[in-house]
Write a structure and sequence with these properties.
single chain, Rossmann fold, 2 domains, 8-stranded mixed β-sheet, 4-stranded parallel β-sheet, 11 helices, elongated, binds D-aspartic acid
């Protein structure tokens, strides 16, 4: 016969375990996040912990990246896919299209709530802008990298990856376009750029980040102003290749051979990364006008990091039938021009696209 006190303690234990089981059963299911790995420093390895800048990128496979941050399991149900294993300076248009198609397919999977793309930092901004333009979903897609390999002291990749998974699993991240999580900040995939090539606060947006991720929470302060994802006229599911676009970097004492080389390469457009407000040297204007007359599109961007190129200011763009890249830096203007040229070769339409995206 059980004593009364023992009986009471047993009933209390049963009740406690039942409530604990109920609590677990009632706990909101963790978001299902897929980590699509492409390489880069976040998958890098150095010889010693002191090697924060000398290392080999694209060495660590995605399952080891995930195993290196066990805290991911606290915030999401995570699984990994290895899309590529490359340093991102080696990305090509084909890689962009392949990655875009995989991301698009994952957004259509009802068992996926968010996607993280781990990526090298060198061309991270091109990929995040490209995905921002071609992925027709409001599910969070978050691109993340790191400035130090995981083998280094104070490596930044683990927390960047944790934050990226938090952002990808957060319902508040939906509908904000493709996002970039770096150094506790959440940036628009359109606006962000790599400003510093050797510090962990490398990525900035001249119009500011959208928010922050801190200790497993996201904090939002603004929304993107330009068209993206669901509001984009570009859809990766209808694109199999991108037209060639090349950049010529403006400086003093330019060689006009550079522009001819772009045309000979078969490019459909040239992005002139001009000095100042997209300026063109007076001895180069006729060359660019001649190339335009032969069908090459001319897009004036600027080598200057901030600000935006004003139409018909430094050059009579209406008269020359040229396009201005607005606030897009040369490498992003190259991405948008390539996509725009899959739709049109009308300069007025091209300029509309540069105003809107
Ligand atoms: N080479 C660089 C890249 O893969 C390393 C990095 O910073 O990620 O972009």
């Amino acid at each position: 016969m059980l004593s009364r006190s023992l009986f009471v303690r047993c009933m209390a234990a049963i009740a406690l375990s039942a409530s604990a089981a109920l609590a677990v059963a009632q706990a909101p299911a963790k978001p299902r996040v897929v980590i699509l790995a492409t390489g880069g420093t976040i998958a890098g390895a150095g010889a010693t912990a002191a090697n924060s800048a000398t290392y080999q990128a694209a060495k660590v496979p995605v399952d080891k990246l995930i195993a290196g941050v066990p805290e991911l399991a606290d915030v999401a149900q995570v699984r990994g896919e290895q899309a590529f294993q490359i340093a991102s300076e080696s990305f090509t248009n084909d890689k962009l299209v392949t990655l875009g198609k995989r991301v698009s397919a994952l957004t259509k999977d009802p068992n996926v709530d968010g996607i993280v793309v781990t990526h090298g930092t060198d061309t991270l901004e091109e990929t995040s802008f490209f995905l921002n333009l071609v992925i027709h979903s409001d599910k969070p897609v978050v691109v993340v990298g790191s400035m130090r390999p995981g083998t280094a002291m104070s490596a930044d990749g683990m927390l960047n990856l944790y934050n990226a998974v938090v952002v990808a699993g957060s319902p508040q991240s939906r509908g904000k376009g493709v996002l970039v999580a770096m150094n506790d900040e959440i940036h628009s995939g359109r606006d962000v750029t790599k400003r510093i090539n050797i510090k962990t606060n490398a990525f900035t947006s001249q119009w500011g980040p959208l928010g922050m991720a801190v200790e497993g929470q996201t904090y939002w302060f603004r929304h993107p102003a330009k068209r993206h994802t669901m509001g984009s006229e570009f859809d990766i599911d209808t694109i199999d290749a991108l037209p060639e676009v090349q950049i010529v970097y403006g400086s003093g004492n330019m060689s006009l051979e550079l522009y001819d080389a772009v045309q000979r390469s078969g490019a459909k457009a040239i992005v002139h990364a001009g000095t100042g407000n997209g300026s063109v040297a007076n001895y180069a204007v006729d060359k660019l006008r001649a190339l335009r007359a032969q069908g090459l599109q001319v897009i004036r961007s600027s080598r200057v990091g901030d600000g935006f190129v004003l139409r018909n200011s430094e050059q009579p763009d209406d008269k020359y039938d040229w396009v201005v890249a607005h606030d897009l830096n040369p490498q992003k203007a190259k991405i948008l021009a390539a996509l725009a040229l899959t739709k049109t070769s009308d300069t007025k339409e091209l300029q509309r696209i540069f105003w809107q995206y």
